[in-house]
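Why do we bother with a discrete structure alphabet at all? Because it lets us treat a fold like text: something you can write down, compare, and reason about line by line. To make this less abstract, here is a complete entry for Glycosyltransferase. Read it the way you would read a sentence in a foreign language you are learning: slowly, and without expecting to understand everything at once.
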Amino acid sequence: MNQTPHIAILPSPGISHLIPFVELAKRLILHHDLHVTCIIPCTPNEPSDATKSVLESLPKPNSRTIFLPPVSFDDLPDDANPSRKISHTMTHSLPSIHHVLKSLVSSTSTTSSPPVVALFLDPFAIGALDIAKELDIPTYVFFPTNAMALSLIFYLPKLDEIAASYDFMRDLPEPVKLPGCPPFHGGDLFASIQDRRTDTYKKTVQISKLIVSAERIKGFILNSFVDIEAKVIKALQEEKTIYPVGPIVQTGPPRQDDGDSECLTWLDKQPRGSVLYVSFGSGGTLSYEQMTELAFGLEMSGHRFIWVVRRPNNEFPNAAFLNHGPKNPLEPLEYLPNGFLERKGQGLVVHNWAPQTRVLGHISTGGFLSHCGWSSTLESILHGVPIIAWPLFAEQKMNAVLLVENLKVALRPKADGEDGIIRREEVASVVKALMEGTSEKGRIVRHSIKQLKDSVVKALNEDGSSTRALSELASTLKNMATK
Ligand code: UDP
């Protein structure tokens, strides 16, 4: 009988969770000889070229992809936010997930792959737990983000009680203290739990209760590593089985959807460490006013930059499912200030998408103005690039607190007054502080990122903490396959 362990992975829709899931799968296939089936829930526009190209990077023949039928957004209001779209897609995909998993557990040794021994779920796919229970499939949750976020998920049912008399988390009178984490101001917690009156809030609390109480979850796999979150990982390990296997970031040859290599050719011509890379992840957007201030601020700083621009949006800071993915050369750049494109002598503007890991790994890149998405954060640390923290949504404000206050690898510009806009003067000043390292804070950040990069290299060594955690997970899966 074929004893290769076969696992199924179920990410939630969207490229930013798909990338770490696929990268985790690659490591399990290449280093631990596992067989992986990717079950991919689809929104109306999926599978996009970007999604297909990420999945095509999986090694063959030990991997297979099954696209679920696309879920229509027709019954959602036009202004539904991305969290709601994700949750809608997952809920409506459950019957097809059931169908696929049922066929995967009943595969026999006569079929090309052995039966699945475990299911790796995205936290947004937690609704599939009941199916796993019915089919008796041991389940792991892969958290593409960090230990702090998992800690908040565990704490949320209690926080819900503590915050019972407030509509907004930002109004909590005391900082929230999660075990092993820096204290968080209520306004810095996940964006999805800020307004307690919304369906998104209720759904997040519901997911959190399911995760806390699910006995079927055998363990939590984190895209983090011990040195970056030692205390919180230790606190979590006292309660649950935790595998900190990160950083799991994009590797391998360039993907087709990375766009042309204009950025890289341009970077080749710039002095070492001279370029600030500015990007807000796969879907992050700014308001029109903020975009204008950022444009002028970059210009005023006098530093070289690559800016991945995306059409501004005054409603949502996250345009995922609207326009993520590779660049669309037809979209106009009219939203940049008049004359900016002609004047931007020291900068390069790229539309919508850049080959980020290659930009961060380029010798000319010396700083990253980032929305602090967790994958972007890990990619920056891995390449030793200091950060300007500009969080927008999801758990990004918590990440910014970790980066600025605990790890001291990022500077955070201050917003001016009530409107939350970061003005051009502040942008210019923080860019100069980071790129020139002339201020005390700038020097500390540039020094600390080098140290953190060394600790990542250690974690990923043959005997490093993340390598060991992944091997431990793989052996557990192999044991399941031989039972
Ligand atoms: N990314 C990229 N090019 C871009 C923007 C994003 O390759 O122009 C990749 C980036 O390298 C990272 C992922 O998309 O792997 C974004 O994930 P992150 O968690 O940073 O942010 P999110 O997209 O979830 O907001």
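What the structure line is telling us, in plain words: The domain at 258-457 is CATH 3.40.50.2000 (Rossmann fold). The first strand starts at residue 6 and ends at 10.
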